[in-house]
Amino acid sequence: MAQVLEFKLPDLGEGLTEAEIVRWLVEVGDVVVVDQPVVEVETAKAMVEVPCPYGGVVTARFGAEGTELPVGAPLLTVAVGRTADGRPAGDGSGAGTDGAKDGASAEGSGNVLVGYGTSEAPARRRRVRPAPPGVNGRPKAPEPVRDTRPTETPSTPTGRAAPADGPVPVISPLVRRLARQNGLDLRKLTGSGPDGLILRADVEHALRAGDTRDRPDTTKATAAPAAAASGVGTASVTRVPLKGIRGAVADKLSRSRTEIPDATCWVDADATELMRTRAAMNAAGGPKISVLALLARICTAALARFPELNSSVDTEAREIVRYADVHLGFAAQTERGLVVPVVRDAHTRDAESLTAEFARLTEAAREGTLTPAQLTGGTFTLNNYGVLGVDGSTPIINHPEAAMLGVGRIVPKPWVHEGELAVRQVVQLSLTFDHRVCDGGTAGGFLRYVADCVEQPAVLLRTL
After folding, report:
1. Nearest to 295 by CA among 399, 393, 383
2. Where in this chain does the record put each Peripheral subunit-binding (PSBD) domain (predicted)?
């Protein structure tokens, strides 16, 4: 006897409470196997493919693309097992069902993340038309949710808009989301990529050209009472929901400022010798060493001398928790917002390894493929805001960590060197720290050691 099981949005870990549906990977009527990814969702931390713990026929989907669902809300229903006449659930023809027999298993793995559980390849999807109630004694399956998304097709090679009877040639979920957020109909675009593939540049060009005249106005909102009182018109007011990464950042920074009594100290340093050292390393051949990697190596050496800053505060137990390992977070600005990927065991890595790991995590951050595990668990953060073209900042500590080193841009400035005025490569370093874990003497000692290593990289040789 067939049984209809409901698959709910699972807990994706790390305290996430909701997720936005980015793309459905299955249609109503498709045959799925255990652990087959069925939907791609975006959380406040990353994009995740969610596998279904049941094997059978998809009978309903809940939520269109762009819908935000809380953890525990229904995602889809799957008919599993066999009907009274021995056929797989949901099979309406009685022929050609052999391909679904193995996949329509009534047992679920219970897994919620891709990469765990069964290792067998997913079965090829088939569209199966549910039969009406009472046919051959089969029970009636729940009525499927109709897919109300506009039909999308790729652009034709001649540049004309393609007919609306197939999928739009878009690979990147970020491109779809950019179009969706701006109310842009992708069917009206002609892609400039291979075989008419729509690229982000095509969407941005359409937005700049004003090719969105008939999109719905979703940004205008009723003016707040304060705005009305001040005479500001409703047309000049916009409301942006605090959700996704922006909402997660807002919550975390607010909590940091609420809980952590932070203080900041800073110092200017002559980075000329550091830049010369990097140039000599890169001239010797092999992978190029990044400035960020050298600064990270300096950070790990400084934390070995001042372990008080590689810690957090357990407010409930009223204890300072010090960590033996350094899991170094670094701030990365992406199209989705600010994220802080974490380099695990940074204290065990050399400059080459750090450079490679920074590059790998940065690329994943830009593509939106970082997992929650790669965005959490840091013990100290390195913030290179110099790439934004600024000299200094007083950053907010990445809760629950206890400190963050900020690095400004490295620029030529007048500097007294060996008793004479000279033009040197100068950088401003700042340290924001939790005053509960240490006093100013410890924080100042840490920052001074970092500055000494920047000015004289040979200082590091003592601990290498």
Report:
1. 383
2. 170-207
Amino acid at 230: S
47 bridge partner residues: 42
Say if residue 133 is preceded by a cis peptide, omega within 30 of 0. no
Dump pLDDT digits (tens) for 369-397.
Answer: 888 889 899 999 999 999 889 999 888 99
Q: What percent of the chain has pLDDT over 90?
A: 42
Pick the closest to residue 271 from 390, 411, 381 (CA basis): 411
Active site residue 435: yes
Q: How many CB atoms lie within 10 A of CB 43?
A: 21
**pLDDT tens track for 77-119:** 998 876 555 555 544 443 344 444 444 344 444 444 433 334 4
192-197, Cβ contacts within 8 angstroms, sequence gap of 24 or more: 193/169, 195/154, 195/157, 195/169, 196/154, 196/155, 196/156, 196/157, 196/162, 196/169, 197/154, 197/169, 197/170, 197/171
Q: What is the DSSP string of 356-407?
A: HHHHHHHHHHHHT---GGGGS--SEEEE-GGGGT-S---PPP-TTBSEEEEE
DSSP conformation letters of 246-259:
HHHHHHHHHHHHHH
194 contact partners, CB below 8 Å, separation of at least 6? none
| d(C-alpha 311, C-alpha 380), whole Å | 8
State the pairing for strand pair 411-417/420-434.
antiparallel
Given 205, 347, 399, 435, which residue is catalytic? 435
Long-range contacts of 127-130 (CB under 8 A, 24+ apart): 127/27, 127/29, 127/30, 128/29, 128/30, 128/31, 128/57, 128/90, 128/91, 128/92, 128/100, 129/29, 129/92, 129/93, 130/29, 130/57, 130/59, 130/90, 130/92
Measured CA to CA, the distance from residue 137 to residue 431 in angstroms comes to 72
Q: Is the dihedral of CA 257, 386, 462, 449 positive or negative?
A: negative
Q: What is the DSSP letter of 139?
A: P
CA-to-CA distance for 253 and 391, rounded, in angstroms?
22
Measured CA angle at 119 (ends 373, 377), to 5 deg: 10
Structure confidence at residue 276 (pLDDT): 95
Tell me, what's the pLDDT at 390?
93
**What does the pLDDT read at residue 419?**
93
